Please model this.
Amino acid sequence: MPEIFGIPSAALFGQLLIGLINGSFYALLSLGLAVIFGLLNIINFTHGAQYMLGAFCAYFLLNRLGVGYWWALLAVPLLVGAFGVLIERTMLKPLYKLDHLYGLLLTFGLALVIQGLFRNQFGSSGLPYPIAKELTGGRNLGFMFLPNYRAWVILASLVVCVATWFVIERTKLGSYLRAATENPALVQAFGINVPRMITLTYGFGVALAALAGVMAAPIYQVSPQMGADLIIVVFAVVVIGGMGSIMGSIVTGFGLGIIEGLTKVFYPEASNTVIFIIMAIVLLIKPAGLFGTQR
Amino acid sequence: MSAVGKLSAALGLAFAAMGAPMVANAQVSDGVIKIGVLSDMSSLYADIGGPGSVAAARMAVEDYGAAKKGLKVEIVSADHQNKPDVGSAIARQWYDVDKVDVIVDVPTSSVALAVNQVTRDKGKAFLVSGAASSDLTGKACSPNTVHWTYDTWMLANGTGSAIVKSGGNTWFFITADYAFGHALERDTEQVVLKNGGKVLGKVRHPLNAQDFSSFLLQAQSSKAKIIGLANAGGDTINSIKQAAEFGIVERGQNLAGMLVFISDVHGLGLTTAQGLIFTESFYWDLNDQTRAFAKRFAPQNNNKYPTMVQAGVYSAVLHYLKAVEAAKTDDGTKVVAKMKELPTDDPLFGKGTIRADGRKLHPAYLVEVKKPVESKGPYDYYKVRGQIPADQAFRPEKEGGCSLVK
Model:
């Protein structure tokens, strides 16, 4: 078997693919964060908890109401997004005029409260969520066995990421959004309801987190901690990509997933730290992030 | 990440009944026996010990009848966040400032090894239930520590030899990269080699990793018959769950969960967990006494049944209080010596003894997870396949390298 750096090339391809799968979660989550930060200037630390809420929501829909995976993909982002809207209206709104730090502290506190409540109720071991019937099984690619569900995750996440980028960067609605962040007063003067647009943007970012949560539920345990473990990495992804850069968060999300995957082959002990090492290097060389622009 | 959550669950069982003799009070420093339950209260091991261990300790104090005997016993608890520095800082604070006499539970071997040293320096007492490393009664053994429930040698010996004997003779390890994982991997490897098996490879993952597919893929390409999971709690759950997704078992390899708790099986669900074979030292459905305990315990722990770690906390605290009464002091070193001298006897682990190296001896059970159709009620998860007698379940005293053994 041909080898690359002492690793059979077949195994390496497998690891690259797995990196890509993890990267799709990073991309999806960091995308939501980037949208929220880019347009609201809020560092949304509740993102991990909202991702967890998405997974729990899917679990409840299935076990209490018998609503399956496909409907959950649609319903959960709406439900959790609505919850996000509620948070924005009642708590975040008064903070826009203040320093970033206040939004960060509030959302961080909220995340702790939500996670604590769920842990109290459901413990830390988590709950099982089955893979949808249509996506069970997998196919042999020759170099690895790829579960159908993982293939679906890559595909779905790519579609969502590209669609989001398109809406924000290439449509009229997106241009309103971007304009409103530059100069809300002027945009309002043109007759556009800026506060409502901002609220809906936050709701959308939260819905993205919830969507990632539903997609993660069958792979990982549905557990109160699932978001807390991930959010730190996702923040690093956003920082590396450039705070608020949509394309940056997508590309870095997938890219770092791959780098992390390779680390798990060559030096698995460092797989938790490699992203932060990259973050430190990027911050030293390009403080605004790979795709960011200095404001 | 979370702030040091000091869940101060102080319990005042303070009242000496009228006329009851004030036996031990005179010898107990500051008049109170203070038990500190130090555990993972918020992360991947919280369901194994955590708040359930606090509940178990409280039940032990009640069942001992401390109040009737005129003993004042208080329980405090804290979250060590699986970090050795946090754990030893809390231990120091408890011993020096809060007048805690004994620390119990402490899952996460790296934290337990740190607390082990602090306890020895301060001359207090340490009852380990949650931590697994057999080093606690080996090269790190201490006259102030009793290792109660289980250890890595017991798991390796029980599960490892059963699997090798049934034909699983080539192994690949997926190991949690800290003291516990290393000890479990080492002890299991010895058993595998001793029984004529081979270890084809190993990979070490950071504690609390989410995604195991990469490690599982490496295990898959090793072509080993058995993939040994030398990890615990949430890590084991995710490994097993993702192994099912990647069709590891369908493609001819088998998983050996070296340390699986009933809370993990509950989290996985029987559909995924069925057929797993592993070793436990306690199961709630062993006999009438264990069943009665579980029925009392569950309502106090969010209807979750006791793990062996929580059961171990109960019986360790019970025996500790008996030893305090017999030794007429709460001096840590003296009480632990008395604990080793007295035979143990409690409803959960039966009769047993504690060796000079601090190892508590009792039988271990090789269990198999039931199929979903075989399970009749809540937490009816195990078939007990065999019992390993107390004198064979643990590492022989001489092999541990403990300096207390002459």
